[in-house]
Amino acid sequence: MMKIKKLLLLMSLSCFFAAGTAAALEATSVQDDPNVRKVESSIKEFRDASGETPLVHVYTPEEITEWVILGTDLYNLKEVNACQFTDDIVLRARKDVAAAYDYLYSHMLLTGSCVPRDTAMGISYLEKAADLAYPAALRKLGFFYETGRYVSQDTVKAEALMRQAAEMGYVPARIDWAGMLLRDLGSVKDMPEAWVLLKKSVKSTPWEEEYITMYIRELESRVPENVLAEAARKSFY
């Protein structure tokens, strides 16, 4: 069982990570991770109380987060592993093991991936992940509030959620927050901070490269040079 478990993990990783990242992850024993042992203990307690059989642990919160950043979380779940670990994800989300499971389960529910589509429950789990300050959840919920999708439109709340994710260092949210400010959501006074955050962001995809470059240029056209210079000296983060 241990060999099968490790093999599945390595197969998943090999599809999406650069060689250096994959090598670093492969060198770490999942079983030696105290967080994983804590998770397995929690699942065992749940099994003992309810009579349910504990499920094989495959996805760690760190893996899910990597896939969310790459935008491959549902692909990995559906195409690579054919939904076979759905019950494990659902159980961990219901047990409040980690915000990453809440987010992934919400994504599954909102899209009908591996589970029946349930938008109300999907938003509930997305909000739970956002309450735990999971950056991807804050960003997605901010998008929903701006567009009025699944929730009542609230642009003030949308901008606040996006800003929170941006200030946590989540590059996609930094891009989206700058876009919101340029669309006149939020305060013009926040533009220098958004500019600094973009300047400090590491671009990891062509999409990020394109939008960071474009938004930096647009912010520089709307904010006086001396104000940006002061913001750079002040450095928010």
Keywords:
237 residues, disordered N terminus, 70% helix, mainly alpha, elongated, 14 helices
Describe the overall structure.
- Helix content is 70%, strand content 0%.
- It starts with a helix and ends with a helix.
- The longest helix is centred in the first third of the chain and has 17 residues, at 34-50.
- It is built from 14 helices and no strands.
- The protein has helices spanning 2-16, 19-26, 34-50, 61-70, 73-80, 86-94, 99-111, 119-131, 135-147, 155-167, 171-182, 191-199, 206-222, 225-234.
- α6 (86-94) packs across α7 (99-111).
- It is mostly helical and 237 residues long.
- Residues 1-50 have low confidence and may be disordered.
Low-confidence stretches: 1-50
Mean pLDDT: 81
Overall geometry comes to elongated
* Main sheet characteristics: none
Counting helices, strands and paired strands, the structural category is mainly alpha
The run of helices and strands is HHHHHHHHHHHHHH
